[in-house]
# Entry
Amino acid sequence: QVQLVESGGGLAQPGGSLRLSCAASGSIDSIPTMGWYRQAPGKQRELVAIMSTGGQTNSEDSVKGRFTISRDNAKNTVYLQMNSLKPEDTAVYYCNADVVVGAYQFRYWGQGTQVTVSS
# Structure
């Protein structure tokens, strides 16, 4: 079993910053892709940013230039530095990891952390 434990959500003012962290633990051979999705009330879950083990990234257009994803592969941890936050960034943010165990690959989700941007 693999667990993803998120931290760092909360309340920020518009223009402010927050940093999310997500640590994976358990039976893990490798994590080819790890990243973040978000879901706002009444909307579908959407990609925020993901990063491969080799450092390749993919991110949603609205966060480019404001959010930065990074990984510590040795710690199986992914971070999301969120700057210049806007009210429309308000959502539950979910950590996501594609985990390889032996010959198999599984997708895991964290429990979600609330990010609220409001004055």
Q: What stands out?
A: The CA atoms of residues 23 and 48 lie 17 Å apart.
